[in-house]
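User: Reviewer 2 asked us to show a designed sequence for the structure in our supplementary figure. I'm pasting the structure tokens here. Could you produce the per-position amino acids so we can include them in the response letter?
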């Protein structure tokens, strides 16, 4: 953070701001726009894509920018950037192709649409900062393969819990401890919540009911913890994670986990409902050096073997611009898959489902997501929830049963399905080569 603010101030002083394009203008997109425009010297939000032009204009207007230009071609967008004007468009690919944009922030939460945009951005050698754990957890590993080959960065962001967890994970490692648990603190977990039950809360905060539902029913935290697992190599201790209910402070939870079992698994991702400091994140680490364990006790972290570190908040859109700066100015990845998937998010019936029905989307009425170790997902042919929307059921599925590919007919021609199949094949071949070599 100290390095980032100085570097941005230098870019501001040189009149050479980092130029950002944003894909999406929902509630979070509006927050990011306001943050960049009013609180981040050395950075400019030069263009916004929105399916609804008025939403893009509103995002700028709420940040105090009234003079915006609607663009419909790459040349028009490039001209606007060169002239120092702000641009909005209904064509997201313009932002991927235009010169003069240093990085894109993807804020849609959509898997199929996001896949197209990220692939187009990578093809045009644009860095991409994702605020889209749904896409990342479903096909992030193969997208990173493409990004690496193109020499660009694809990363999740600061502010959302996964990025905050990863910052804390890196800190714990940097002072010599071995992180064994990355945790996320929740206030509510009920897999049967739906847009009807969450409508009042969504209206109060100006959010979409299905987005709020994805938090309440556990799908969102599953996506978030899956991408942390894929970035660290950690697993889940069981399907759905342990997910303890605990009303004390997370510091008091260190005795609830078996350190030897955590080591055996290579560390785990998990969540807790009701603990303090909510809505923060925590990392439990261990240390093998008895001299250092003595000092950790002296510094009030206890006798171990697990030591608790936490961040008591996550500030979402406030921190996303910092991720852009890390990527553009320092080539620093906030959070990205190490290699192939370690944990996936699988589709689970929220209600009794009937043959012939078409599955609705994430955070709606029919399904919720659970974390599962990727080896089991592959072995049991389980259906990732990021691919479930639009699938037609071949048979009845009772509530709380997980779905397999054999239970559904996939929509025809989706890029996300093609990339998921490619991801499976790519990393299966990599494992085979590693075993042979």
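Assistant: Here is a per-position design you can include in the supplement:
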């Amino acid at each position: 953070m100290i390095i980032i603010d100085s570097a941005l101030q230098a870019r501001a002083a040189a009149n050479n701001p980092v130029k950002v394009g944003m894909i999406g203008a929902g509630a979070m997109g509006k927050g990011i726009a306001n943050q960049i425009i009013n609180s981040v010297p050395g950075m400019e939000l030069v263009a916004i894509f929105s399916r609804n032009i008025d939403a893009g204009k509103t995002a700028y207007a709420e940040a105090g920018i009234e003079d915006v230009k609607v663009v419909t071609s790459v040349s028009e967008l490039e001209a606007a950037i060169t002239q120092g004007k702000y641009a909005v468009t209904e064509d997201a690919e313009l932002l991927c192709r235009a010169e003069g944009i240093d990085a894109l922030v993807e804020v849609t939460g959509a898997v199929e649409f996001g896949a197209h945009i990220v692939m187009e951005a990578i093809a045009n050698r644009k860095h991409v900062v994702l605020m889209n754990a749904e896409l990342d957890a479903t096909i992030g590993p193969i997208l990173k393969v493409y990004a690496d080959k193109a020499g660009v960065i694809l990363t999740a962001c600061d502010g959302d819990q996964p990025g905050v967890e990863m910052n804390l994970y890196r800190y714990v490692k940097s002072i010599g401890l071995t992180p064994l648990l990355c945790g996320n603190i929740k206030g509510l977990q009920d897999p049967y919540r739906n847009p009807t039950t969450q409508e009042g809360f969504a209206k109060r905060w100006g959010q979409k009911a299905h987005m709020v539902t994805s938090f309440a029913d556990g799908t969102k935290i599953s996506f978030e913890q899956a991408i942390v697992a894929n970035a660290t190599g950690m697993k889940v201790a069981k399907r759905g994670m342990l997910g303890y209910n605990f009303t004390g402070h997370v510091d008091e939870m260190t005795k609830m986990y078996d350190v030897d079992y955590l080591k055996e698994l290579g560390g785990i991702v998990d969540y807790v409902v009701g603990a303090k400091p909510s809505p923060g994140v925590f990392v439990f680490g261990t240390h093998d050096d008895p001299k250092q364990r003595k000092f950790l006790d002296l510094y009030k972290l206890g006798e171990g073997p697990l030591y608790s570190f936490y961040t008591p908040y996550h500030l979402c859109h406030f921190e996303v611009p910092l991720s852009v700066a890390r990527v553009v100015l320092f080539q620093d990845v906030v959070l990205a898959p190490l290699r192939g998937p370690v944990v996936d998010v699988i589709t689970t019936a929220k209600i009794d489902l009937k043959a012939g029905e078409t599955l609705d989307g994430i955070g709606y009425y029919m399904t919720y997501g659970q974390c599962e170790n990727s080896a089991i997902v592959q072995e049991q042919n389980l259906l990732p929830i990021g691919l479930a929307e639009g699938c037609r059921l071949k048979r009845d599925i009772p509530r709380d049963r997980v779905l397999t590919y054999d239970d559904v007919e996939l929509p025809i021609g989706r890029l996300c399905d093609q990339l998921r199949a490619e991801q499976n094949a790519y990393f299966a071949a990599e494992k085979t080569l590693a075993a042979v070599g």
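For the response letter, you might also mention the following. The mean pLDDT is 96. The chain has three domains: 2-159+317-330, 161-314, 343-430.
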